[in-house]
Amino acid sequence: MSIVPKENVEVIAQSIGINNLSPDVALALAPDVEYRLREVMQEAIKCMRHSRRTRLTADDVDGALNLRNVEPIYGYVSGGPLRFKRAIGHRDLFYIDDKDVEFKDVIEAPLPKAPLDTGIVCHWLAIEGVQPAIPENAPVEVLAAPSDSKKYEQKDDGIPVDIKLPVKHILSRELQLYFDKITELVVSRSDLVIFKEALVSLATDSGLHPLVPYFTCFIADEVSRGLNDYPLLFALMRVVRSLLQNPHMHIEPYLHQLMPSVVTCLVAKRLGNRFADNHWELRDFTANLVASICKRFGHVYNTLQSRLTKTLVNAFLDPKRTLTQHYGAIQGLAALGPSVVRLLVLPNLETYLRLLEPELLLDKQKNEMKRHEAWRVYGALLRVNAFMIGSRCSHFCHLQHPNLSGVPVKESLLCQINAREVWSTWKSNHP
């Protein structure tokens, strides 16, 4: 039997305008009312415990109702515990002693502020070591360093708390000049011998770690707005390689800023603005760079290679992408190793070649540029197959070819692979 009597259900029904509720219906609703009350109270107790309190308040009940998408209770606040009084002559009847309030005072009282819903707001704590003056951050006067460079604050219990003040990232004059000189060479003088010397300095000097965030931001900005400048893109990728080669730089925290720029130079639709720009070489260079990043930092970021592989596979299998993008994706997948090629490229090779064949033939593709791009993609696929044959034959490297003295089987097989013969074989199987 429910602890909620059916009379309470009838009274509640009358309060909302239902005057003809039958006793049987009220008796059937009473257990469900009890179940809902227990459910709400259990959630309220959870809210109380999460707040590290031992006294249940009206705010806990409102929180439980909010979790159940139920309108909260109005008219009750958690300013203090509710004080119940026992009704005279009734042992189990309690009531809240409400004070008499003048209606005039209620009307003239100012309205309270509307409660705000819980939300999350993002803001900058500091930008390059400098705290912006925004309302969310503490005022500059509060953070002003005292004479002993420390600030103490007294908590309610009297225990002093040491507040660590923000430290501005200050570069030495030498590092600033070094950064300006490197960026100037990258932008305008990447074809000079001094630029090669600068790359060697980036790859070997031990005091350049403070410049890593500045170089990553510089590379990201220049790649995003310089896709039509082929020399600039190639110089930026060479800078990335030098930064990765420097053993004194901890570049792991900045990979999330570098990878989009590197992948852009691999699978972008267009790199450079002239026909003479050899963007194929840039894509080959970037593919090897991507593979070296995955090999070096794959154990630090477990999802790095999987996310990169997914991006390249989507670019490779998307027929709406250009052939230049397909080429970059194929080169990137091939650089990641034979396992990636075997699992992701070879199963889709036959279907892709059917789509590529019309772009290769003169009678079907009249645009010479498109036909040249298709043959580039086909050459990349030939190299992928040759690479797979070489990896399959790697366990026979200790054997000697019977007709080629001193030449291992692996090299002899690779030497016999000819693009023209493979193309003719494929043409015969796909008339």
UniProtKB/TrEMBL annotation:
Question: Which residues are in the TATA box binding protein associated factor (TAF) histone-like fold domain?
Answer: 2-68
SMART domains according to UniProt: TAF (SM00803)
Q: Name one GO biological process term.
A: transcription initiation at RNA polymerase II promoter
Which family, according to UniProt? Belongs to the TAF6 family.
User: What is the organism field in this record?
Assistant: Prunus persica
- Lineage of source species: Eukaryota, Viridiplantae, Streptophyta, Embryophyta, Tracheophyta
**Keyword Heme in record:** no
What is the protein's given name?
Answer: TATA box binding protein associated factor (TAF) histone-like fold domain-containing protein
Kindly state which keywords UniProt assigns to this record, in alphabetical order.
Activator, Nucleus, Transcription, Transcription regulation
Cell location: Nucleus
One GO cellular component this record assigns the protein to is: SAGA complex
KW Nucleus (keyword) present? yes
Q: Which top-rank group of organisms is this from?
A: Eukaryota
Give the main localization category.
nucleus
GO MF annotations in UniProt:
protein heterodimerization activity; RNA polymerase II general transcription initiation factor activity
Which Gene3D superfamilies did the record assign? Histone, subunit A (1.10.20.10), TAF6, C-terminal HEAT repeat domain (1.25.40.770)
One short Pfam family name for this protein?
TAF6_C
* InterPro entries to which the protein is assigned, alphabetical: ARM-type_fold, Histone-fold, TAF6, TAF6_C, TAF6_C_sf, TAF_TATA-bd_Histone-like_dom
